[in-house]
Fold:
Amino acid sequence: MNIILLGPPGAGKGTQAQYLVETRGMTQLSTGDMLRAARTSGTEMGKVVADVMDRGELVTDEIVIGLIREQLESVDTHGFIFDGFPRTLAQADALGELLEEQAQTLDAVIELEVNDEVLVERIVGRAEDARKAGQPVRADDNEESLKIRLMEYYKKTSPLIGYYYAKGLLTKIDGLKDIPTVQASMAAVLDQ
Ligand code: ADP
Structure:
């Protein structure tokens, strides 16, 4: 079973993906994590993406589609959780084609719904907690980049909600509930 987690920055996609990895042995494909790994690897691509990410803008479709393609071809799994991908309609089309080439299907798209005030609180809070604990803070977890990330989400990613609704794949989950409640709702969707 392959699923997409859709939702703005701070909606809880990473937390929920982790739960599915632990409970179901699925494989999380987070383009954000892949891009952060690329930027620390010192490769040409890493250098190109670093500034774009820190500003809160989207990196090019070509780069992220390439990253996903490599993973789909090389990893054998109990199913993929796409976390932070696709983020544009072009990426969504490309994912459909890649899955088809691998004779795989997309089974569900789960939208985690939250409101903007909560997102800002969560992300700014996450950065403060990390700072207090002496842990690294994501360069894009500040209010300025967050505004851009949210705008990118509304302009480029939110059209995917209609796209997957039209394909009959979309389920909305209230992302404002506590973590175990959201996990239970996710499990219910997957076990349908
Ligand atoms: P969040 O969901 O908290 O914004 P991510 O870790 O998913 O964070 O992504 C961080 C950044 O990585 C994004 O702001 C963007 O610059 C880049 N990125 C991640 N996934 C994609 C994607 N599918 N397309 C384009 N850019 C992406």
Q: What stands out?
A: The beta strands are 3-6, 27-30, 80-83, 108-113, 170-174.
